[in-house]
Amino acid sequence: MIKYVIRGLRHSDVDGICRLVNWEIGSIVSREDVDERLKIIDGDEDYRIYVAGSGERVLGYVVLQKGITPEYPGRIVRVVSMSVDISCQNKGIGADFLDKAEDFAREEGAGLVALNCGFSRYGANAFYEKRGYTKLGYNFYRRV
Fold first, then answer.
1. Has residue 81 been placed in a domain?
2. What total of structural domains would you count in the chain?
3. Could you tell me if residue 137 is inside a domain?
4. Over the stretch 82-100, which tens digit does the pLDDT of each residue have?
5. Comparison of pLDDT for 57 and 135, the residue scoring more
6. By C-alpha distance, which of 20, 18, 13, 9 is closest to 89?
């Protein structure tokens, strides 16, 4: 059993989060870019960042954003980014992150938590469905 705590972001988390972004999510982002983006996110009241840590080791992170959409009444909370180290998956960290998202939604008076998940992430899709999340459609992206 791995011991961890869910806590707020620390400056020392940048390397661990950069590792997860580049390895687990499959992006190619420099440490400097991750650091800059985390500072912007951490300074914006519409966002929350939570880190699963064991000592100084980053086991996972989640970035949440509150907002409003024209198609849903009231506020929503979107899971913008979430990753758990592959060696720590199925240990409760992802569930704790979704609990944080749902708590944040309740605190902000939001009635919906939304997230995206890739087709090929079968385990993650099953996890979200087990937690009561419903697949609504496809997500499309285009870089401009």
1. yes
2. 1
3. no
4. 999 999 999 999 999 999 9
5. 57
6. 20
72 vs 78: CA distance, rounded Å: 13
Distance CA 31, CA 47 (A): 20
For residue 38 the two structure tokens come to: 């985390």
Instruction: Give the residue numbers spanning the domain of 60.
Output: 5-130
Q: Which residues of 60-79 are buried (b: 16+ CB within 10 A; e: fewer)?
A: bbbbbbbeeeeeeeeebbbb
Q: Evaluate if pTM is beyond 0.70.
A: yes
Residue with tokens 């620390």: 10
CA distance 21 to 40: 17
CA 70 to chain CA centroid, nearest Å: 23
- CATH for 106: 3.40.630.30
Three-class SS state of 120 = coil
